[in-house]
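Pipeline run #58 for the internal structure catalog. This entry was flagged by the ingest filter as a single-chain record with no existing model, so it goes straight to prediction. Upstream metadata was stripped on purpose; only the residue string is passed forward. Reviewer on rotation: M.T. Logging verbosity set to normal.
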Amino acid sequence: MQHKRFRIPAIFRFFISRQVIVTATALVALLLTLAVPFAVRPAYAATTWTVTGLGDSGGPCSGTNCTTLRAAMTAAMSDSGDTIIFSVSGTIILNAALPNVFKALTISGLGQNVTISGNNSVGVFSTTSGGTLTLQNITVTKANNSRGVEWTTNLAH
């Protein structure tokens, strides 16, 4: 006895194949949506700001290049873990205290000869709650307090 194969009409095969594709796509999308909270996220990339001048008044930043240390510190306080480096050597004479450090910040004079002077009239650096300041190869001089740096939390040097 021979069995006759049952064939699904072409119109039904068309819709069934589309339904399988749509269902499979929906399942994949659902799985991806559920997996997102458990996905590995990229590490935070801290920004390196470059000071290009020795002045103290305001000064803009263009990308990650800033004309003054003051501008670089202001920009760096938007994220924690940033680093400020210098493309110039010399003395920065401050007219006013630099911005308070309230996040993790490294200021590095490696490769340059950088001195920051309070000009016997202002303090140079200060940290507040939550701030961590790391100074590398920086000379701090002529601040109006005995240390040149005032801190309420963490200072590394």
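catalog note: Residues 9-41 form one domain.
catalog note: Residues 10-35 form the longest helix (26 residues).
status: ready for reviewer M.T.
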